[in-house]
Structure formats: C-alpha cells, structure tokens
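Figure S4 source data
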Amino acid sequence: MLEYQKELLALRLKEEDVGEHIMLAEVTMWSHIHFHNQLKMVLQDLTMPAPPNWNTFLNEIKDVNVDILQDKVKREKEKKEAERAQNIRIACLESRQHNPVEVLHLQMQQTTLGATAPT
C-alpha cells in the first residue's frame, strides 16, 4: 500500500468517535471537526473551496490527481522533518548557552582584590 493511501486511511473517523471531545494542544474540540480539518488540509489545493453540493464534493475527491496528491504529501513530510530537525538544533544550542549571571559569578570568583607579589 502506498504511503499516501496509509495517510488517507489514517484519517478515518470511527462512528463511535463522532460527537466526542478530544484534546489537541491543550484545546478541547469535537472529533469530527478535527477530522474535517485534517482532510481539508490534505485536499485543500486540489478541490474547490466551497463545492455547491455533496455530490460535487465527492466527485472532486474521487477525481483528484494521485500524483499531485503524493507529491503534496511528500513535500509536507519533508517540511515537517526539516522543522523537527531545526527544533532539535535550536534546543541543542539553547542547552549550550550559559546564564550570563552564572558566567559573571564564575569570573568574580577568580578575581583577586589587591596586588599579588611576583614570584
């Protein structure tokens, strides 16, 4: 089974989930609204923004060019992977940064007040 087919099948809304609340990013929403938003994102550029009726909508989805859909899914995956890698690099760099007050504290610990005699 092709990858895009797996993704589309993963968008399946189970009958028992209709009318249920789900928590996403600390926001409560209806499961069917989340499902609709996911499907809309996948097919957004490939269908009309507001089809006049249900049959037109279904026909548009059925007639979507599979090659274009695959390419879109591939680009979206690559984008998410690049964002994830970038976030990992940012977290790594942030963990390396020292607190400026801590650096100043360490410098002051090594400071002496007064002249030292040369040996």
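Figure S5 source data
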Amino acid sequence: MHLRTSGLHHVLRKQAHNRSPVFARRLTTASSSSQSSARTAVYATAFAASVGLFAVYYYDARSAIHRYVLTPVLRRTFDAETGHKIAVKVLRSGLGPRDPVQDDERLRSEFWGRELSNPVGLAAGFDKDGEAIDGILNLGFSWVEIGSVTPKPQPGNPTPRVFHLPDDAALINRYGFPSQGATSMISRLRARIPKFHETKDDTTAALKPGSVLAINLVTGVKTFGPYADVLVVNVSSPNTPGLRGLQNRELLEDLLTSVQKARDELEPSPITARRPRLVLKIAPDLEESQIVDIADLIRKSNIDGVIVSNTTISRPASLTDPNKSEIGGLSGAPLKPRALQVLKTLRAHVPASIPLIGCGGISTGADALDYARAGASLIQVYTGFGYDGVGTCRRIKDELEALLRAENTTWKAVVDDSVRKLSWTDQTQNP
C-alpha cells in the first residue's frame, strides 16, 4: 500500500511538473494580450483625438497652419498654375476651411441700397469657371466675382503663364481667358439653385444672406443675367489682344450702349426677381485724360458701378524678383499706389450715386481702409489671397474692425463721408 501511494505521488508530481510550463505560458499569453489590447485602445483614442483636433484646426480658416504651412508648401511644391487649380478643387469639394466668426457690425456695408455683412470680396480670376462659389463664400467673403467666362471653351495662352514674385508680394499672369465656356458655367449655376426656391426681398444670386454673386464676362449679358447680382464688363485684361482698346471713348460708348440694351431687355431673374447690375472694370494704366473720358461716359450711361482696377502692364522700379521681366499683368502689393490713384481720379469725376470697388494690392485691414478713404464702397482681394491662404478674408476683416473700433467709427460711415467729400457734383445745377 505504501509503495502504491508513493508511486501515485510520483506520477502526480511529474504530471504537475509537465503541466506547469504550459499553464505559465497561458497566463503570460493572456497577460500580454490584455496589455496589447490596452495599448491598442490608448493608441486608437490618441489617434482619434489627434484627428479630431486637426479637423477642428484645419476647418477653421483662421488657423495659422493655412498661412504658414499649407499655403507655402503648396506654392513651393507646385508651379503657380497647378497650385491655383488644387486650391480651387479643394474649395469645390466642400472640404475647405470655413470662417466660423460672425462679422462685426462695424463692417456692415451698403451696395445699391442692399446690406452686405462686410466689404471684402474676391476678384475674378481665381474661380474662372464657377466651380467653388460656395467654398469661397464659406471663407467669409461677402461677394465673389467668378470668371472671366467666354461663350465657348478655349484654352487661353500657352503655359507657363503664371509667375510668383515672392520677393515683391506680387504675381504676373498671362492666362488669356482660359475657360470651360458658358454652357459649363451655366450648368453649375443652375445646380446651386434649391429645388424649391422661394424669392424674397433680400434674396441674392449668391443664395446666401448678406452676400452677392458677380460674373465677369466679355459677352453674354443675356446668357448670365438671370444667374447674377452683378455682371462685370471686362475691357481691361492686358492678356487679350485688342481688349483694352475698348476703353477708348468711341468704342467704349458703343459697347456700353449695347450692354445696357441687352440688360434692360432681360426679364427679372427667377432667383432674385431683379435684373443684374452692370459694372465696368477698368485698367490702372489709363492716362488721366482717358479716366476723365470714361467718367463722362459713365455719367451719361446707366452703368451702375466701376471696379478699379485690373492688373497692370507697367513694372515699378521697386520690383526685385527675377520673374519681374515676364510678360503679362502684374498684381499684388506693387499695384496698390497706381490703382489707388486711378480710383481717386475717377471718384472725383463720377457722382456719389456710382459706387466704386477698389482692387489692387489689398492684403491688410489698413489697405482696405485706404481704399474706403479714397471713396471705394467695397474692396476685392486676389494676389494677397494666393499668398496668405484661406484665412486672408478673416484676417483683413479683423484688422479692419480693430482700426474702425480705435477710431470709433464704421466702414459705412468712412465710405459715406469720403464719397460725399470726393465725388463729382454737377456745377451747372443751382444750389
């Protein structure tokens, strides 16, 4: 009996010894699996939080990442035209950043009796085919000018045709009206209209309260009139042979007469229940006598406003960038002195009833205020937007609001005072 018991104990000890490594391995595996799952959960949480924070940061147009990281990387990685196209596609996709801040009351602007939330617009040339209207408006612009659009598709001038001048905060382009054509743009404009659209007194073609949609064109008043608040008659691009010749008095008079006739024959827009306003866009390279002639024509016509100005063919002596010798229209900071002078001259020769829109070298709130003090009702940006990115509009508005607050005034008050003091008055009328 004792021998059997001893043998049994020996067998049991042997089996226990054989099982212990397996049991230990199972315990170790279970422990490792638990730790691995915990690490995975921590990593997943950290990743989700990082993505969430980045998304919040990215979708806020004010974020410094846009001005100091994404925009410079885009500019240095791709040529100027490719970077431009990528920016348009991102804004078209609906994945672009947004301006999350409501505009301050001091920025309220008035245009033909209609109130805009702020005076900052985006000039034609960025969204040439009306692809990213809503993406641009989401950046805080109160109005956007799309185009220039041509009746039929055309490629424009040969590439390369866009050149950065970073040393001068400028740009030279000789695009030459590349366009997908009228049919393509009309289809996009129609697609924006809600299925059950209701026209109200404050409805605009931008389909956003306090905003305006303008279309820059050479021809096509009847085609685009129903879809725009403003039609911009472009006679000032330096990249289309013969176009600037239309600014000569006789040719311009004939053009304005035909454009006004076409506009007046339009039925009220099904979107806004109004006919579009007509705005003339002029060059900064005009002599003073030419500006006076144009002003005289405007006074005698039904043109509703003027954009001052397009790009310049001149090359200021201050330019230092190697690309300064490229052929085309120069825009950006070097354009501001000339554009501002042309605006002041024109303001002195047109009545207060004709609003002027300032465009040329605007990249700060102080720049915008300079134009208001010269008699501009609204302003447009272009090159500054390309250099500083999607937060440009909000930054200009914030800087402008701070300047107006420091002077205890508003944009409208500055504009009204300047226009009253600087505008042309009919000296033949009895006081």
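The radius of gyration is 31 Å. The CA atoms of residues 129 and 185 lie 6 Å apart.
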